[in-house]
Amino acid sequence: MVQGRRRMLRAALGACAAAGLAACDKLNLPQAGQSFRGIDITGAPYGRDFKLPDADGKERTLADFRGKLVLLYFGFVQCPDVCPTALTRAVETRRLLGADGERLQVVFITVDPERDTPEVLKAYMAAFDPSFVALRPSPEQLKATAAEFKAYYKAVPTGSSYTMDHSALSYIFDAQGRLRLALRHEQTAQDYAHDIALLMSQKTAG
User: Fold this and answer.
1) In total, how many domains does the chain have?
2) SS3 108
3) pTM recorded for the entire structure
4) By its UniProt entry, which InterPro entries does this protein fall under (predicted)?
């Protein structure tokens, strides 16, 4: 499975070169006065924080990533296309940001902790980018965290097994740990990089 993810990642990133699109090679940095392409949810009374164990069992919160922007995504390893697309887009977003890509931390919260064991999550993150952090909540923690972020997930039977239906928004936090944006799944890496670069360019208030 992980080998397949690596092939998918290489193919997706290679598609830019194959298509010869200028947008894949250069990020047109946002100018003063430009607006976000995603949904500006600055000041929203939800998505305030999380407190969840990572794949090594270490408890993580937003404070651990203070100073970086955070892209938070809910998904699961056996997701056939939506999650690999989201993570591949995150890889491409960091590439488009250039040196500033190091200031973006990707955090993946599994909605399938029963099957997404620590070993599985580590291998899955490594197939995309070893810097990505996977969090594995208990069922009770997952329920509470999903409610905090207004995220949806549900197990759907498929023959003798099941899959997970889930929302596909990516949440963006600024360097002070404040929820600022919800980016849609249908948006491109160029859109994501534009909004994140715009956030990075804004002066810190307070």
Assistant:
1) 1
2) strand
3) 0.85
4) SCO1/SenC, TAT_signal, Thioredoxin-like_sf, Thioredoxin_domain
